[in-house]
Amino acid sequence: MADAQGMDEDQTNAALSFTLRRDTVSAVLAVEGPITEILGYEPHELIGVTSVDLLHPADSDAGVTSWVQMLLGPTLEGRFRGRYRHRDGSWIWVDTHNVNKLDDPDFACVMSIITVTDEADVSIHEQLRAQREVLARLNELLPVGLLHVSIDGRVIESNQLLRDLVGVEDPRRLDDLIAAVAPADRGLIDDLISVLLAGGEPHSVELSFVSGRNCLIDVRHLTGPDGAVSGALAVLSDITSQAAERDEYAAAAATDTLTGLCSRRSLLRSLEELLEAGRTLTLAFVDLDGFKAINDEYGHHIGDLTLIETGRRLAAVVRDGDVVGRMGGDEFVVIMPASSATASSETIRQRLESAFRRVAVVEGVELQLRASIGVVKTSELADVSDAVTLLGRADEAMYAVKRSRQRAAAHRRSVRQSHRP
Fold first, then answer.
1. Whose CA is closest to 288, among 346, 329, 336, 322?
2. pTM value?
3. Integer Cα distance of 250 and 236 in angstroms
4. Which candidate, 400, 325, 316, places its Cα nearest to that of 356?
5. Distance (Å, rounded) from C-alpha 67 to C-alpha 414?
6. Phi/psi class of residue 329: alpha, beta or left (left: φ > 0; alpha: ψ in -120 to 50)?
7. In the chain, what percentage of residues exceed pLDDT 90?
8. Contact 217/173 with Cβ under 8 angstroms?
9. Rg of the chain over CA atoms, in angstroms?
10. Cβ distance 180 to 166 under 8 Å?
């Protein structure tokens, strides 16, 4: 009974199959089997006809790819599923099994064994094909780069936007993409891969690429049926313009727009970092004396140029590693992490005051600049733990110098008045 059933199945399969003998360009040389019953053609009508002539346009690429793989591949075989045109214009789903026997003297051709496909299989195949087509279109329409890699580093899928972002036209392995990352950021990739291999949570990281792009990369691992990590999916968002705007904003926030020195914000951040690191440093608070009178007499333009000149002069007398910045108005700060521990506050103050010894010529206006400078050293302060407090102490020292000078000036005026006849 079983043998009879098997014979019936073989006969059914044979009734639904035919064979085409083809040359290297897939032109039909001979036909074997019931092709008329299946496709409606008489055998002589197909002589010289190629696969592309018979295949549905949507399936021709798959057919050509399978044909080339069969001709050039090591197995000398190729399979694909597609639709053949019936003589009445309808389409029949078939499975094609091509076997390369060109070098076999008994055949000297390609044997194409073509079998009509079960309708249920065809329906599933068509659904999968439609889904793949939708996914392929989505891959190209989405405004993000998409990447699918296997656990061994093979690139399974990537869309055109990803290739454009990273500057690699045909990435085959993850190493091709890592090589496109800016050298300074490649360590981040190593950390990211370690997290993924360990089955870590979805992860995001910002990377710069040699192409000049900046991308935010969201990555999550994939698992196989056994729960082991099998690969990863990555989504790349182009944030090049946002990163440039952020860097410009950060640079602007860190720089005093008038003098080009460090801004108040940048000075505070530098102080906090040095204090948190436990560094011993010297801080000078510089207040330009008589600045209001310069503004009142010569105008704000000369006043601005005077502030710029003050900044230049201070920068010229400090040491490498010292930081000069403008707090605002006519107040400047000098951070000296490299100052000698043996140099006294008075010695440091005198060095900074030397910046004001020469007369300044600002657009033809001669100005004798003077400044009150307060200097404090963290090694001599026991109660300073933050930048604001340290600046406050330096400000107090500056005002002590200013008051001392004002008292000395008042005393000199009093002496001169007492000697008048």
1. 329
2. 0.48
3. 24
4. 316
5. 109
6. left
7. 42
8. no
9. 41
10. yes
